[in-house]
Automatic annotation (TrEMBL):
Keyword terms: NAD, Oxidoreductase, Tricarboxylic acid cycle
Name of the featured protein: Malate dehydrogenase
Active site, UniProt feature: 175 (proton acceptor)
Ranges of residues in domain Lactate/malate dehydrogenase N-terminal: 5-142
UniProt source species: Poseidonibacter parvus
Length: 313
């Protein structure tokens, strides 16, 4: 790619954190921001541009509508976050409306873009984005698996009292309470997690991982996590722009993989300049297959609701 350009729609907590990472680390040549809140949008563009200057990074940051064209990657974080006591699923219809409207606004001027969806409920928003854009499945990916895996690694490090950075984890399925942390694929410094911790400790880590988003929502009281989500999204952007073929867990449309069709959920994906270039089919044991089935079912309930109350109304 010649001039690498990334559009970020929604520059609230996650979008601004993402844009800050992209700009200060020179991950692309241009970042273009878009939001409903005009003054806030401009403030973010100026502040992040100044941060890039402080970092001696050459990335240009803009909030001009006329610049929101020919993006290579568009990340959508526009939408409302949940509040304490809410589930991500409670955001379904509000955020589906926002998702559809922002895609309608940008799709014609950004015909080659790969979309990364962040808004919640994540898997249902990927489904919505696919329908709203009419794009092939490889060009719409959802960010959640990297975040959930990073949470699992955090809880393992805490439990073992070990240094971070040596822990490999992977979480599949929908980004909801039924997500599937893949315990037998976790290693710490090359050693299997199952050889390092008891069954009870591992179960506790799985529960903490599943509740990781809610834990932060409760502590914040008004909003949800953004540093880890923003950073996780920047890894996906980087993999696309650099055509790195990195494998990350991402939400994509399944068309027979893992035995499911016409449903979006998190699976390991090889990411390159075409977006999702391959879905990796891991061998799951019987328990994991059951958990994945439950997770798929919870996403299916949301996409059925969308079909009934949003797309066919
Ligand atoms: N996938 C994940 O793992 C993950 C992680 C964190 C947050 N999220 C989700 O991401 C979304 C954003 O979270 P946040 O913390 O950044 O929220 P936020 O409220 O800080 O930011 C959302 C931004 O979207 C903007 N917006 C709303 N409607 C818009 C529209 N039509 N056009 C342009 N901009 C619009 C708002 O003005 C706001 O600036 C939420 O739905 C949240 O649940 C997902
Ligand atoms: O928990 C949320 O609502 C936000 C996000 O999905 C997260 O996991 O941090």
């Amino acid at each position: 790619m010649e001039n690498k350009k990334v559009g970020v729609i929604g520059v609230g907590n996650v979008g601004a954190t993402l844009a800050f990472n992209l700009a200060t680390k020179n991950i692309c040549d241009e970042v273009v921001l878009k939001d409903l809140r005009e003054d806030y949008l401009q403030a973010m563009a100026i502040d992040i541009s100044q941060a890039a200057n402080a970092a001696n990074a050459s990335t240009k940051v803009s909030s001009e509508t006329s610049d929101f064209v020919n993006c290579d990657v568009i990340v959508i974080t526009a939408g409302i976050p949940r509040k304490p006591g809410m589930s991500r699923d409670d955001l379904l219809l509000t955020n589906a409306k926002i998702m559809t409207s922002v895609i309608d606004e940008v799709k014609d001027a950004n015909k080659d873009a790969i979309y990364i969806i962040v808004s919640n409920p994540l898997d249902a928003m990927v489904y919505t984005a696919l329908k709203a854009s009419g794009l092939p499945k490889n060009r719409v990916l959802g960010m959640a698996g990297i975040l959930d895996s990073s949470r699992m690694a955090h809880f393992i490090a805490k439990k073992l009292g070990t240094s971070q950075g040596k822990i490999k984890t992977s979480v599949m399925g929908g980004h909801g309470d039924a997500m599937v942390p893949l315990v037998n694929y976790c290693t710490v410094d090359g050693k299997n997690l199952t050889d390092l911790l008891s069954k009870e400790d591992i179960e506790e880590i799985v529960t903490l991982t599943r509740n990781g988003g809610a834990q932060i929502v409760k502590l914040l009281g008004n909003g949800s996590a953004y540093y880890a989500p923003g950073y996780s999204a920047s890894l996906m952007v980087e993999a696309i722009l650099n055509d790195s073929k990195e494998v990350y867990p991402c939400a994509v449309l399944l068309e027979g993989e893992y035995g499911y069709k016409n449903i979006t959920a998190g699976v390991p994906v090889k990411i390159g300049k075409e977006g999702c270039e391959e879905i990796i089919e891991l061998k799951l044991d019987a328990d994991q297959e059951n958990e994945f089935a439950k997770s798929i079912l919870s996403v299916r309930e949301l996409t059925d609701t969308l079909e009934e109350k949003f797309f066919n109304k």
